[in-house]
Amino acid sequence: MISSISSPNSGSKQPKSGKASQSGNSGRRRPPQPQNGNPEIRSPEPATLPPQQGRGSRIGANSPTSSEEFTTQDFLSDPRSAINPRKPRTSKTPQSKTRQPRKKGLAAVDMFEFPDPTLERENVSSIASNPNTQLPTATPPATRGSRPSSPPVRISDTVIPADTKKPPVPKPRPQASQRPGKRSAPRSVSPLVYATRLLILGVGIAVICGTLLSVVNAVSRASTVATEEQTTVGQKDPADSASAASATPEVLQLNQELGALKTQVQVLATENPSLTAGIFLVDLDTGSYLNFNGDTAFASASTIKVPILVAFFQAVDEGKVQLDQMLTLKSEHIVGGSGDMQDQAPGKKYSALEVAQKMIVVSDNTATNMMIELLGGAEVLNQHFANWGLRATVLRNNLPDLEGTNTTSPQDLINIIAQIDRGNLVSVKSRDRILQIMRQTKNDSLLPKGLGEGSIIAHKTGNIDTILADAGMVDLPNGKRYLVAVMVKHSPETEKPAQTLIREVSRMSYRYLYGGETPADSQVKIKK
Question: Which of 479, 528, 524 lies closest to 506 in space, CA to CA?
Fold first, then answer.
C-alpha cells in the first residue's frame, strides 16, 4: 500500500485532520445550503468507498460537533479529498409531525469506535514491508474545524455549526415529590405573645361557660315558683327530702308587696312579743302580696291534711284509687284527738271519699292515718310534696303528732291552695270536690271571724298545744279572691291571744282588699 503512492509530494508529511491545504481548490465554492432547517447533504463520489462503520461509530443528533472524521483509507483512495472534501449527499429526511423534539443532552452518543478488520490487515502488511512506517493510530474524535471524510449513517434533524459552542444543557429541576424535605427551623415565640394567646383562650372558654350557665339558670328559674324569689334566704328546712324539692310550674304572679297592710301587721306582731307569727297573703286578681315570715317552717298540726287531700284526688285522677273504694278501719289507725272515727270498732268499712271528707271537715286524725296508708305512707307523700315545690312541708309521723314533728309554712299552704285553684295538680272535677270539702270545715273560729257578710272561705285549721293555724281561699262579695295563711307559735298559756291575732289579721286583710282602707283602730293590743 505504501509503494502505490506516487504523488509529487510523497516526501512531505501527511496533512493533519482538519488542516488540509486548500491550494488549487480555493476558487471552488460550496453549494448553497437550504434555509429550511433541514439541509440536504450530498454524498461524494470517491473512487473507492470506505467500509461502513460499525454501530458504535455513529454520532448522535446531539453530538458536540457535526464534523466528519478523516481516515487514512480515504486519503489513499483519493488524495484530493484531503484538500477539498465534499460532503456526502443524502436524502432529505422529513421530520414527523408527531415526532417530539429531542431533549438536549439526552440523546445517545456512541463513545466507542471499533477498528475495521480490513484496515488492520493493511496496516500489518505495510509494517511488514517497511518497518520504518509509523503505525496508524485510531482516529481521534473530530475537533472543531475538521471536515468529515465519510458520511455519517445517522443524520440529525438540524445542522449545528462547527464553530458554535453548544450551550450547557440545564439539569431538570426535581419535582416537589422528589425534593428532599426541608424541616423549617422552629420559630421562637416570645412569652408576651404566648401569654396573650392563653389569655384570649381563657376569655373564650369563660364566655362559652357563662353562656351555658345562663341558659341553664334561665330554664331552672322559669320552672320554679315565683314566690320563692320574694322570700328570705335564711329559710330552715328540717326535712332532708324537702331540700331536694323539684321545680314546679309557676303558679303565683307576684307584682308588688302591700306595704300599708304589711306595716299594720308588723305593728301588731311587735306589740305581742310572746307570739311568733308567720303570714302570707296573695291577691289573685292583682298579684299583690304580703309576706311576714311566710317562709318560716312551723309545726303543721292539722294543716298538713290539705296536701294529703290533694294527693288523694291526684291518685283518683290517675286511676290508682276509686272514690267508692272501701277501706277497712284497723286498730293501728285509731288515735285520739279530733274526729269521731276513733269511737268505731276496728273492721268497720268506709268509702275512700268518706274518709277524705272526715279528714278535712271534722279534722279526723283516725281518717288521716287511714288515708296515709292508702296513699303509700309518709315517704311517698313527702316525695309528692317535694315535686309540688313545698319546701317546708314534711310528714314524719302519723296524726295527731302532738310533738309537732310534721312541718309546713304559710307560703307552702298558699302555694298548694293556689295550685288547687289553678287546676295544676288535679283535674277540674277533682278541684271542685276539694274546694267543696274545704268549705265545709266545721271549725270557723279563726279566719272566718274576720270576714264580713257575704264572704265565702275554703280553709283548713290546725291546732296543737304550741301551734295555732288557719289557711284558706276567700271569695269577697265584690268578686275579689285572695289567699291567706296565718300560723302562730305560742305557749300553752297564750293560745287565746294567738286566736285573737289570727282573727285580727283576717279582719285587716278583708277591709283592705274589699273596702281599700285600713282603719287606724285596727292596731289592737292582744292581752293575755
Answer: 524
Cα–Cα nearest to 252, from 409, 426, 414: 414
8 Å CB contact between 38 and 157:
yes
- Please give the single-letter amino acid code of residue 163: D
Strand partners, 279: 292, 486
For 192, the grid coordinates are 408576651
State the DSSP string of 363-410: --HHHHHHHHHHTT-HHHHHHHHHHTT-SS-B--S-TT-TT--SEE-H
CA distance 294 to 298: 10
Q: Which helix (H) or strand (E) holds 219?
A: helix 191-222
CA angle 405, 413, 234 (to 5 degrees): 70
All three cell numbers of 79: 488524495
Strands 326-328, 349-351: pairing kind: antiparallel
Cα 391 to Cα 295: distance, rounded to the nearest angstrom: 9
Q: In the numeric block, which cell numbers belong to residue 188?
A: 421562637
- Entry pTM: 0.55
What's the distance, CA 464 to chain centroid?
A: 58
343/334 Cα distance (integer angstroms)? 8
* 3-state DSSP helix/strand/coil % of the chain, to nearest 5: 35, 10, 55
Phi, psi dihedral angles at 257 (to 5 degrees) = -85, 145
- Upstream peptide bond of 400 is cis (omega within 30 degrees of 0): yes
Q: How many CB atoms lie within 10 A of CB 377?
A: 12
Q: Which amino acid is at 313?
A: F
Q: How far apart are CA 108 and CA 172, in angstroms?
A: 17
Q: Can you give the pLDDT of all 528 residues of the chain as single tens digits? A: 334 433 444 444 444 444 444 444 444 445 444 444 444 444 444 444 444 444 444 444 444 444 444 455 555 555 555 555 555 555 455 554 444 545 444 444 444 444 555 555 555 455 555 555 554 444 444 444 445 444 544 544 444 455 555 556 555 565 554 555 555 555 676 888 888 888 898 888 988 988 888 777 666 665 554 444 444 333 444 344 333 333 444 556 788 999 999 999 999 998 889 999 999 999 999 999 999 999 999 999 999 999 999 999 999 999 999 999 999 999 999 999 999 999 999 999 999 999 999 999 999 999 999 999 999 999 999 999 999 999 999 999 999 999 999 999 999 999 999 999 998 999 999 999 999 999 999 999 999 999 999 999 999 999 999 999 999 999 999 999 999 999 999 998 999 999 999 999 999 999 999 876 544 334 444 433
Nearest to 478 by CA among 449, 453, 450: 453
